[in-house]
Design goal:
The structure is a homodimer.
Chain A (H helix, E strand, L loop, with lengths): L21 E2 L2 H10 L2 E8 L2 E8 L1 E3 L2 E7 L3 H6 L4 E13 L7 E11 L2 E2 L3 H15 L12 H6 E7 L2 E7 L17 E9 L3 E2 L15
Antiparallel strand pairs in A: 1-10, 2-3, 2-6, 4-5, 5-9, 6-7, 6-11, 7-10, 8-9
Bound molecules: flavin-adenine dinucleotide (FAD) (2 copies) and protoporphyrin IX containing FE (2 copies).
One protoporphyrin IX containing FE sits at the interface of chains B and A.
Pfam family, one (chains A, B): Pyridox_ox_2
Organism (chains A, B): Thauera aminoaromatica
InterPro entries (chains A, B): Pyridox_Oxase-rel (IPR024747), Split_barrel_FMN-bd (IPR012349)
Chain lengths: ~210, ~210
């Protein structure tokens, strides 16, 4: 990856450790958000810091979450600042020296405040985008969602504005004098793959739908 | 999985949403910590909440981290409370209704304060355990670590005492009256696998070492 083409959006998002791995452009950030399905959302509540794993999806310049209207996490998120973290493990990097071992990765850290998506048409469209983004075309084939289900669900979003990405995507660095040390040096890629689907015994439909995961 | 066999270790670790998915026993927690390589560490600094992805490993009842002695994250962690989050995505759960879609997962949330591992023999033994835990037997084959490298590195650990696990590991739940809706219902498992290793062009050793990932 080339060096960052634009500056950090705020002082606190400026990557200080290994800043040559930083990216602040919206396209790099969006691509990492889309490649991941899970994020961790950190927030402050009752004087303590909490960090909770959750599914996310992206629409334009926002990252979206969903859950129970009664959830502590979702309530806390509209009342204070949050930090959202996404990390993808792309490879194990094995060097000749212990210290130069590393990982290839893509990560994003976002600061800001979530807002609730309450406007009914927007909320419905977002839930449709969530389902269809994972399983193309699925929304229209499902048992239609009810008012009661919609009312029990919260949808929140945060702007991907105060965000940074950090990426490592290359081979092994070792000290010059260690290059002929007789131990294997290289990268072992890691990938998340879909396995064999398990159809429910009582599923009337038997053919597995396509997913974003191939 | 059976119901939790012991109570939450503290009021704030008691899982309130879907508590039937909670586990508080040390063995369940340790197994999830070991199955994951990455965690997210959340901490408070300068009035804001930060959450940073990092590698972890476990020794007994502690989760360990490493990084630069000069790192903001590692410095902040010994000065205040932290929350560590681990999440593994095990499967996509597709239901007949939108709302009953879900994921199979294993997650852990830990609260507490990190302590620095500074005693030289303990620190060295921990870094060895870190490398050999990923790549059995590798430490002894590496270019030996130097004093300077050890001095530049911090190792921190947190007790897995104030911790909870949450697990979903089964099929599809749908409302009774939706069971014959003609759309596929089932689980698509997800797995992270090691791909084809990429040997460095200048690696003297050409045979790939074993890893914990098979
Ligand atoms: C898969 C993975 C594994 C990692 N393992 C380790 C490890 O074992 N040890 C270790 O020290 N570090 C590890 N890192 C790097 C780690 O995430 C931090 O970048 C690093 O520890 C420096 O943290 P800091 O708070 O001191 O950074 P600083 O550079 O001081 O952070 C300043 C700001 O930069 C941004 N930033 C920092 N890190 C990231 C990031 N990863 N992604 C996007 N924005 C970021 C945030 O806005 C942050 O507030 C790992 C990263 C990933 C993705
Ligand atoms: C892979 C994955 C995807 C998820 N996706 C979603 C989603 O899209 N929407 C959603 O609402 N929820 C999701 N969850 C569940 C989420 O992590 C929370 O459990 C849930 O949102 C309730 O949060 P809360 O803060 O309101 O919980 P509460 O039950 O009030 O939390 C109380 C305490 O229980 C413990 N706890 C809570 N959650 C967890 C956990 N996951 N693991 C271990 N301990 C925990 C913590 O100690 C926490 O402080 C997902 C979980 C995983 C692992
Ligand atoms: C045991 C010997 C090791 C030592 C002494 C060591 C030392 C360090 C140090 C000092 C840093 C901070 C870099 C910086 O912020 O400037 C660091 C970061 C890191 N280490 Fe290690 N490390 C060791 C093993 C490993 C192993 C085995 C892995 C991979 C499995 C690894 C993965 C990483 C990663 C991913 C980072 C973050 C780099 C970044 O910010 O982009 N390290 N390590
Ligand atoms: C679009 C329609 C959807 C609606 C209305 C909906 C609604 C909800 C609600 C209300 C909760 C909170 C449960 C609770 O805390 O009591 C929840 C949690 C959750 N949802 Fe959804 N959901 C939808 C789609 C999905 C999809 C497509 C997935 C999977 C990809 C999913 C995965 C989850 C997960 C993993 C949880 C957490 C359950 C737990 O805490 O163990 N949801 N959802």
């Amino acid at each position: 990856m080339p060096r960052p083409t634009r500056p950090a959006p705020s002082p606190r998002t400026r990557v200080r450790r290994l800043p040559e791995r930083a990216h602040y452009d919206a396209d790099t950030i969006a691509a990492i958000v889309d490649a991941a399905m899970l994020c961790t959302v950190a927030f402050q509540l009752d004087g303590a810091v909490h960090a909770i794993p959750t599914i996310h999806w992206r629409e334009g310049g926002h990252l979206y979450l969903h859950g129970a209207k009664a959830s502590r996490m979702l309530k806390a998120l509209t009342e204070g600042e949050a930090c959202v973290t996404i990390a993808l493990a792309d490879g194990l990097v094995l060097a000749r020296s212990a210290m130069h071992h590393s990982m290839n990765y893509r990560s994003v850290v976002v600061y800001g405040r979530f807002e609730a998506v309450t406007e009914p048409a927007h909320k419905l469209a977002s839930l449709r985008a969530f389902i269809d983004g994972l399983y193309p075309g699925r929304w229209d084939t499902l048992r239609p969602i009810t008012e009661k289900e919609l009312n029990a669900t919260s949808v929140l979003r945060i702007a991907l504005d105060e965000a940074s990405a950090k990426v490592r995507d290359w081979g092994v660095k070792d000290d010059e004098e260690d290059l002929d040390w007789p131990v294997w040096a290289g990268v072992i890629p890691l990938r998340t793959l879909a396995g064999e689907p398990v159809t429910e015994p009582d599923s009337v439909a038997r053919s597995v739908p396509p997913t974003r995961f191939g």
